[in-house]
Task: structure prediction
Amino acid sequence: MSHSTRCSTCGTAWTGLRVEHCPECHETFTSTSSGDRHRTGDHAVSTGPDRRRCLTVTEMADRGMARNSRGHWTSGKADLRFPVSPGIDDHGVGGPSCHQGPAGPADSRRAASGLEVAR
Result:
């Protein structure tokens, strides 16, 4: 069973242990690294051009960040620590079928693709 989390301010919902949602700009990110990458400025500065803030959508795109099929921002780089499998996006975040027990739809897709099914 997937656990869903919802932002009480903007209403955005997401699942997954690695997903981050920014409480300032309300964009959602596939990982801590992509969430951290969207922040800029000096931690000690609260006003002015050097203040700590979120990047705009245009600034994120200019830095090579991109949205995945779920609309979550990625760093734009594949995370090679987690191999890509059918039903799992480019940052290791799977859909609901990936949480099913043995011989579920995710296992069938992995077996059909020639990937080893871990037990």
